[in-house]
Amino acid sequence: MSQSVITLYDIHSTIPQPWAPNIWRIRFILNYKRLPYRTVWIELSEIEATLRMIGAQPTSYRSDGRPVYTLPVIIDPLRSMSAPVVLSNPNTIADYLETAYPARPVFPEGSRALQALFVHYIQDVFVKPLLPILVPLTHQRLPERTQAHFSRGAAPTPPPTAMVGPQREQAWNAVREQFDFLAGILDKNTSDGNGAVAMGRDVSYADFALCSVLIWVEKVSPHDCWARIREWNGGRWARLYTRCREFMDVF
């Protein structure tokens, strides 16, 4: 393992570019702050074993007390003379990177609380109507080895079923409601000319959280889901995607 750069753990899939939104939130920060890092790709079936091995903390616990290990996780070898810093949970990692590397802040002074609320809305409310549409499409892009792991495990998980017909259009109506609501909120920003970013002028963690969802849509379903969403609300979401594009490098 390199001793000079941050390591970011990401999910291996058949998609040429990474897609997982929670992990993209951290990759955005690393790129925006111009921090050197490398990506280590893990099969979904190997996440728990890998994270236990490197000493990462679980991100949550099941009702029976068993730990749940999820990505993103970073290892930062630069911040300690005795041992590297190993962190899980995207919000914890974001706070750490902002504190440890304050140059080029993603939380402008006085904005952290409001941005935390915005990000909470994105991950707990805004994205929910998209899940029934995107999860089956994402499952199809996982390597066969990973799909087989879920279907033959101790508690076999059937593959998620893609919605069709009226059920799918109903789901899209719920998605459109969330995008319309958020567009109405962002319309209150005018200082950047189109209100595309949450803070009104400069990109911030809130924009990275939202654009991470757009990347998930674009990578998993570029010609269907993204082709639909990018035209909504006067092309606002395509503008935000373009605004964040310079921070989309993958190392």
Structure commentary:
The chain has 251 residues and is an alpha+beta fold. It has 2 domains: 6-100, Glutaredoxin; 112-247, Glutathione S-transferase Yfyf (Class Pi), Chain A, domain 2 (Up-down Bundle), CATH 1.20.1050. The chain is built from 10 helices and 6 strands; from the N terminus they run βαβαββββαααααααα. It has helices spanning 21-32, 47-54, 90-100, 112-126, 131-140, 144-152, 165-186, 205-220, 225-229, 236-244, and strands at residues 6-11, 37-42, 60-61, 67-68, 73-76, 85-88. It has a 4-stranded mixed β-sheet, with helices on both faces. The protein has a two-stranded antiparallel sheet with strand order 3-4. The longest helix has 22 residues, at 165-186. The model has no long low-confidence stretch (mean pLDDT 89). Residues 113-247 form the Glutathione S-transferase UstS-like C-terminal domain.
Topology diagram in text:
Elements: E1 6-11, H1 21-32, E2 37-42, H2 47-54, E3 60-61, E4 67-68, E5 73-76, E6 85-88, H3 90-100, H4 112-126, H5 131-140, H6 144-152, H7 165-186, H8 205-220, H9 225-229, H10 236-244
Parallel strand pairs: 1-2
Antiparallel strand pairs: 1-5, 3-4, 5-6
Helix pairs in contact: 1-3, 1-8, 4-8, 8-10
